Amino acid sequence: MKPKKVPGVPSQLKGSSHDTETKKFLDNSELLNSEFQRIQKKFLDINSWSEYFGKGLPKFELHNSDGTPVQRSPQIGDYIKILLNTHSPKNYIWVRIDMIDYTNPDSLMIQIRPSTVPGQQFAGRIVHFFSSTSTSTFILSKGKDYIKAAVYGRNEAANSNANFINSIKNIFISLSSKLGSSKINWKNFTEGILK
Asked: Which H or E run includes 29?
């Protein structure tokens, strides 16, 4: 199935992609507006995102551009450290926030891409199973009678800029993503954040 064309979401050029969307319907406009404001606060609290997956994993930590953990709304240039397995604290990945769009009062967009460890932008390797051409765009939007949470993955290709063992591991993870395993996780997220 072809990926949707969504304003602000990069075009799909290579690798795999996914469109994960969940809607919550509300027929009362006053309730719709207050619920949208409530969910926006959850959406901007990246340190709490793990709560919306149901199992407590993955764990998300917002870091500033220097790599220091922060407790605030995200900003362009911030990083997110994602712990994939609590049994192995070294099993984490990094992404960088490239874009945040607050311009539409009925929509909020955050776009991330795989990254090096903060402070190693020029000398380090990408610490993620996808390459730096991959993006994930998170959109929270409000329609006439619904609130929609969505995650759009584009250009999800395996990261080969790693040591040999990690390159092999990245290929297997990106293959499992093509088969839909990451889509299941993002569906848990979009459903969980709307609760």
From this structure: helix 29-44
- The model carries a pTM of 0.86
**Inter-axis angle of helices 181-193 and 164-178, nearest 10:** 70
Residue 93's H or E segment, with its range, is: strand 92-101
Residues 6+ apart with CB under 8 A from 104: 141
The pair of structure tokens assigned to 81 is 């450290």
CA gap 113, 135 in Å, rounded: 5
189/194 Cα distance (integer angstroms): 9
How far is Cα 63 from Cα 117, in angstroms, rounded to an integer?
Answer: 11
Structure tokens belonging to residue 74: 């995200």
Give pLDDT tens digits for 83-105: 876 555 567 888 999 999 999 99
152 - beta bridge partners? 19, 137
